Amino acid sequence: MSAFLADVTSLIEDYCGRDLDRRSGQSITLYPEGACALSIPARYQTFLTVTAVEQDSQAVTDWTFNGRQLTRDADWGESAVTLTASWGYEAVPASLKAISCSEVIRWLALSPGVESERVGEVEVTFSGANSAQTLSAATRTSLRQGRWRRGAVGSLTLRREGPVLDLRGPVVLHD
């Protein structure tokens, strides 16, 4: 079961293009293109904290970080930049845990070699002999709707059609 959860987590990370589990004190090597801004790949941007920056084995201290890129007054040149950083969720959001668990349950419910089953008018789809377990269409849709993909993580704006209710009492306000 834990192997399936690890597999699903890896597939979700690949699909979303970001690391979800917390990684602490890791090295990230980036290759600048001679500009003042050095972009951080989306994979590392989830709650990223940068503790040290080195270039050509020398500490760089004149940088600022805005959540998506490191900037400095002098350009970064062409040599590799190594960051010591931590990123990912301290605790994975419950919605991502639910998506992962439902995917594992789906995998466990299928017989080996069966890609999908349908009860009404009995339909079974068999996968090829070399196919690996993948994320279902429903999981991919949930991840897209949950805005977990490539830099889109944030809160959802919910709107309701109709009159706006004043929570101070039973009065209906008009738009």
Could you explain how this protein is built, in words?
This is Phage gp6-like head-tail connector protein. This protein is of the alpha+beta class. The chain has two domains: 1-13 and 91-154, no CATH class; 22-87, Immunoglobulin-like. The chain contains three helices and eleven strands. The strands form four sheets. It has a four-stranded antiparallel beta sheet, with no helix packed on it. A three-stranded antiparallel beta sheet has the order 2-6-5, with no helix packed on it. The longest helix is centred in the middle third of the chain and has 16 residues, at 94-109.
Outline of this structure?
The protein has 175 residues and is of the alpha+beta class.
Average pLDDT for all residues: 78
Number of domains: 2
**Strand tally:** 11
Poorly predicted parts: 150-160, 165-173
Coarse structural class: alpha+beta
**Gross geometry:** elongated
Q: Could you give a short account of the major beta sheet?
A: 4 strands, antiparallel
Work out the radius of gyration. 23 Å
Portion in strands: 25-35%
In DSSP terms (H or I, runs of 4 or more residues), the helix count works out at: 3
Task: Write down the secondary-structure element order.
Answer: HEEEEEEEHEEHEE
Question: What helical percentage do the residues reach?
Answer: 10-25%
Strand order, main sheet: write it out. 1-7-3-4
What's the end-to-end separation, in Å? 52 Å
